[in-house]
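Ticket #302: bound-state structure for zinc ion.
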Amino acid sequence: MPVEIPFVRAPDFPPGEAREVSPLIRRIVAPNPSAFTFHGTGTYIVGRGTVAVIDPGPMIESHLQAIVDALAGETVSHIVVTHTHIDHSPLARPLQRATGAPVWGCGPHGSGKHEPGEKVEEGGDMEFAPDRQLQHGEAVEGAGWTLEAVHTPGHTSNHLCFALSEEKALFTGDHVMGWSTSVISPPDGDMGAYMKSLELLLEREDEVYWPTHGKPVRETKPFVRAFIAHRREREAAILACLGDGIGLIREMVPRIYGNTIPSLLYPAAACSVFAHIIDLAERGAVAAEGAIGIEAQYRLAR
Ligand SMILES: [Zn+2]
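RESOLUTION: The complex was predicted; output attached.
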């Protein structure tokens, strides 16, 4: 039986309106819906009076204006960024110019190199540089709220989640989303790191996840366990292909995915299979004929 992930796919709020979603949290959705962003980027405002803004979002003037309008009469003390994809971080500097607040959070985009191949997710924001880089366990705080950085590499190497202990809540960025699995696209995406970062969430006692895209996840641990099981199932399918002598990723993809996804998405699926194979090779289970690459021939390692 394939693993069933209990996705949450309810419609999001209309773009541009700040909605209170908990006593300490407001959410404004940017007008950038796509296959990668679902209904759009959800920017979070934490606190009242003196607030933090998490993931200002893509470079869209109307979204900047919506954030500024929502915060009329309040002070932004921190602009906080989970990771450097162009649907999350680029508006940090314009928001800083509008508010004077420093930019905190993840470091610069990890791979620092051109990522070749098919476009399977929102691209990297190579311009991003925080004023203050937060390490795992470091926190920023304001009146009545604390945001503690939880380093969760995998989707990107610099990805941070942020724990709001006052509400036992975790802002999960793109690490755990309610509507979809995360894209793990090498070279910056790293499946081995991602799996460890999922395990890390199981050690925590967060009662709700607020992802950037889509609605909150309230059954936190069962949801994460389903994600882990789904990836292990995918890994087993790859190993089964290799056991049957299918060593090329482009030949594995139709067999593993069949008609569960449109063939249009096969290149994205190939990236995901490649991410698994890199992880399996690092663990000594799989070997490449020659250099590791998306076009390489693979076999089970003896
Ligand atoms: Zn992302």
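RESOLUTION NOTES: The first strand starts at residue 19 and ends at 22.
TICKET STATUS: resolved
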